[in-house]
């Protein structure tokens, strides 16, 4: 089942350890692909210049690893491409353009982006229009650099702009950029009542990336086996969707901070065992 799909590790839950620990653990598990969460203390672009980017790339390359995606922090940091405040919106657009440049220097083919937030009590169409305008600018910039954008929906607790695969497809069609792809986060999709099959049906070949994690009804990003999602069924849905990208383990939460290797190993072993079934 994994002939054309690559298990991908992510450093999110390693935030209490140096990034080298994460990279070494990835090698221990014989994983070849990583998704880089771009945030302090590992790699916030505002604190890192050319020499630091080069050092990180060397650390990745010497371990025989490759990047599937660069995912700059954008939900905790003051970043909002749909913001009403023009200074915040312009700074957020520039932030993603800078991240696209960094992604190219790291030999990452893609940058993950979310639609922004705006205010909950604003008119949806006004917030949506600002988001689309920003996404269009960023997508045109990414296309010029040769980098893909993976657009991730956010659940209602975060944003009202894009929550479902249908809404995501509409945005992709409206912007109509060859650089812009949709993606699924299985935890967020579960909250909205959707599965990988729904995203496969609605996005088709515009499904560019998958955050493949277990969850419960809260939408928590859990290691596989700690939640309730039907892993075997989801793997079959990936196959049916003719998806050929990375399946990335975006494990999040303080419960995993003390020993992040355990949930990563647990998830990888479950994915591998189910792929042989």
TrEMBL record:
Domain Xylose isomerase-like TIM barrel: from-to ranges: 24-273
Signal peptide as annotated in the record: none
SUPFAM superfamilies documented for this protein: Xylose isomerase-like
Name the record gives this protein: Protein FrlC
Species this chain originates from: Pseudochrobactrum asaccharolyticum
Lineage of producing organism: Bacteria, Pseudomonadati, Pseudomonadota, Alphaproteobacteria, Hyphomicrobiales
